[in-house]
C-alpha cells in the first residue's frame, strides 16, 4: 500500500502554500484561493467577496455556474460522457451545424483549447499549401506581441520572445511583422507564405484593436498569394465584441477561424472553423484528438452558443460596453497620473498606464484585489478588463467604486 496515500484525499485542507509545494511553478497565482462563485460574484476560502471582471480571462462569458449551462451539463453527464473517435455523437453534430450556420464556415473541427485549435489551423494551412502548391510554400506570417497558444508550434507563431526563450530550436519558416503595419505586411507576405494568422484584437499583446484597413489588406494579400488567412478569435469571439465573432464587425472574412475560451464557458473546448475546400485537405488520420468534440463539451458549447447568438443578447453587450467605456474614460480623466487612455472593443478593454506607473500594471491589479475587485493585466503596461457578458449596470457602478478605492490607496501610498 502506498504510504503517501491519504484516505481523506478529497477533503484534506489545502491553501495557497500547497500550490508552491506540489504544483509545477508555471504560474504565480494570487494569495487568495477562490472556492465558490455565481455570475460575477466570487468568494475565497476566508469568505471574502470579490467582483470578478476577469471571467477567467474572457472565458466565463455567461458568468460562473450559469444555471442554463449547469442544467445542460448535468443532463448530459447522466447520459453519455465519452466515445473514442471511431464514433460520433449527437451533441457534436448539433454544435457543428449551429456554428457553420452562424458563420462563414462549412466545416468544423473540435479540440480542447485555443492552442489546439490554432495548432490544427496551422497544420491545415501547411498541408493545404503543400498539396496545392508544393513544399516551398510553407512560411507562416504572424504579428509581434501576438498570442496563439503554448504548444511549441503555436508559441513560436506567437510574437513574444519571452515565451520562447529556452525552448529553441523553434519550428522554422515563421516570420513576424508589427501589428497594424500595412507596409510591413506587403513586404512579408509573398508567394512562399502558406498562412497569415492574426488576432482581430490583440489580447495578451495589450488589448489593441486591429485597424480595419490592416485586416482588409491581409485579406487582399492572401487572395493574391494563395495564402490562408487565419483569424484567431479565441479571446475576441463568442460575443465579446458585441458581434458573435469580431470578423463580422470589420467586413473581413477569414479562411479559417479558431475559437475556444468562452465557447465552453469554462468547460474545455476549442474549435477550428473553415471552408469546404480547405477542409478537404485533412483526410482520415491526418489530424485528431482523443477528447475533442466529446458529448459533454459539445453540449455545453451548444448551450453557450444558443444563449449568446441572439440579437437582444449581443445588443446588450454593446450597451454594457458603452457604459463601461464611459466609466473607464472618467476614471482616466480623474486619475491621469495612473492611466492615459482606454482601448479595445466590446467587453474586452484595456487601460494603458501612465508614465508615473509604467511597468506597474500588476501593482494596480493587486490594489484592486485588496478592495475585492478582480481584474487582469496585459503585460506590464495595460490593465485588462473582460467581465462576463451578462454584466449589469449595477455591477459596472460597483466596479467604478472599487477601482477608485484601489487607485486612491495606491496613489496615496506613492
From TrEMBL:
It is found in: Cytoplasm. Belongs to the class-III pyridoxal-phosphate-dependent aminotransferase family. ArgD subfamily. It is an enzyme of class 2 (transferase). N(2)-acetyl-L-ornithine binds at residues 150, 289. This is Acetylornithine aminotransferase. The modification N6-(pyridoxal phosphate)lysine is found at residue 261. The gene is argD. The keyword tRNA processing does not apply. It catalyses: N(2)-acetyl-L-ornithine + 2-oxoglutarate = N-acetyl-L-glutamate 5-semialdehyde + L-glutamate. Its main location: cytoplasm. Homodimer. It holds the Pfam family Aminotran_3. Pyridoxal 5'-phosphate binds at residues 114-115, 147, 232-235, 290. GO terms for cellular component: cytoplasm. InterPro entries: Ac/SucOrn_transaminase_bac (IPR017652), AcOrn/SuccOrn_fam (IPR004636), Aminotrans_3 (IPR005814), Aminotrans_3_PPA_site (IPR049704), Class-III_PLP-dep_AT (IPR050103), PyrdxlP-dep_Trfase (IPR015424), PyrdxlP-dep_Trfase_major (IPR015421), PyrdxlP-dep_Trfase_small (IPR015422). Its EC number is 2.6.1.11. The lineage of its organism: Bacteria, Pseudomonadati, Pseudomonadota, Betaproteobacteria, Burkholderiales. Signal peptide: none annotated. One of its GO terms (biological process) is L-arginine biosynthetic process. HAMAP family: ArgD_aminotrans_3. CDD domains: OAT_like (cd00610). One of its GO terms (molecular function) is identical protein binding.
